[in-house]
What we know:
Order of helices and strands: HHHHHHH
Distance between the termini: 38 Å
Strand content: under 5%
Structural class: mainly alpha
Helix content: over 70%
Amino acid sequence: xxxxxxxxxxxxxxxxxxxxxxxxxxxxxxxxxxxxxxxxxxxxxxxxxxxxxxxxxxxxxxxxxxxxxxxxxxxxxxxxxxxxxxxxxxxxxxxxxxxxxxxxxxxxxxxxxxxxxxxxxxxxxxxxxxxxxxxxxxxxxxxxxxxxxxxxxxxxxxxxxxxxxxxxxxxxxxxxxxxxxxxxxxxxxxxxxxxxxxxxxxxxxxxxxxxxxxxxxx
Length: 218
């Protein structure tokens, strides 16, 4: 019971999602700028992931808003569809990052470690706070869980980028940038598979319930 009481009401949830959307929008531009200046593929990968986060987070905010305005909408089904979309997008990101990382491993490029470290630290700080705030609701809402998993993947990838940045700065291991990006891809892919599975199960279950109800009424 205490677990349910700690879940945010939909109005407060929407306000929190708007705040997270704003923070990640600013973080996207910071990471993109630093990644371009420092020629870091792992930081640019983070920025690309953040951009798609903004799209999916925008869809999440829209779905919460629509359900608030029209209570007859099936929020669970909308959440499942957006969760499925989130998962598919994450899978596409993971595949792209793997191909780019392998290419950069074969031909490592010179990158700047300090800008990578700054960008990764900012990303870890913002995404760490976002995932902390969303953790409780992520157990009860697929929409929020999708946002939470995006944040977790970003936070974990930021740690990977920080390690890669230290390797580049102190040891001139330029290949570490590509390895960091590859780790990011694996983390994103794993979170995507779990989200797709849960979303698909809810959609199948809800369709089965509707068919069963229609059969019963006939």
